[in-house]
Here is the input.
Amino acid sequence: MAETSDRSNRFLRALRREPVDATPVWIMRQAGRYLPEYRATRERAGSFLALAQTPELACEVTLQPVERFELDAAILFSDILTVPDAMGLGLHFVEGEGPKFHRPLRNPTDIAKLGVPDPEQSLRYVTDALRLVRRELRGRVPLIGFAGSPWTLACYMIEGEGSRDFARVKAFALNEPAAMHALLDVNARAVAAYLAAQAAAGAQALMVFDSWGGMLAPAMFEEFSARYLAQIAALLHDDPHARDVPLILFSKGANASLEVLADTGCMALGIDWTITLDEARCRVGDRVALQGNLDPATLLASPEVIRREVRRVLDDFGPHPGHVFNLGHGITPNVDPDHVAVLVGAVHSTGANKNS
Here is the structure.
């Protein structure tokens, strides 16, 4: 039998590639619109930003999925664009259109004006929320803090909003590489400081979401994304609060660069659903744990199909240490919460047999 573990520590043990009693599971965007209790709190808050920037409300929605499901980790409810907002770009949300910045970056002069914000000043609402959540969890499950990657933040900072192809930011990287590297460097230092502050406030694992890294060709990915993910890992390793806190990197769509990502200094890689876990594990070996990688659309299928697909993902990873079950991207708002309960139960029951 595998060494005894339980809900309070199996997630962290899996990240360290240690034996667990059952495969741990949490879900990206697990606190979100698919939950009726989240929608009620969101309505009470009045806006997404008010919800994210009010520590008591952020704590409330962070805990909601953990109270409802037997998940093995909580992840702070926040947004990846908190850092550029703290840099003065003026984050706001337009209904039906998503995040936008009042003051996007348009030239090297704009970038030269940026500085690293003090997380305990301009981002105090995040660290206060973390402290509240950690207290309310009472050790039931570990708490994950997170940030956006330097490249992903740069995409929004230059475009000023979301984009299908981020053509403006890619052209900027090609035409103004020195300015782009200056932006990515300040973003990396800001993200590292932000994550270190989250660790100091109680986060027990840290995750970087490189949402748009996969849109880069491999050479550009190494130059403009992976290089700065490695910088963050090195800065966290040198920080007394963060050096022992596991770091997970998730670069959606960057499957061509898994080996590069595994060498950044992280402890685990998030994997999307467009590659098998078996292939990913064979390519990275025992350098990192893997997290993933069920297609989020599976949660729209019947319970029988969900159980079948959970088994397929677990079988794909095989009887090896170092697997955290997750979706290959965030859960969608139209998912039935009962299907999430089916997923979690199937992971634990099937994963217990796999780990025994």
User: Anything to note?
Assistant: Confidence is low (pLDDT under 50) at residues 1-5. Residues 177-201 form the longest helix (25 residues). Residues 15 and 224 are 26 Å apart (CA to CA).
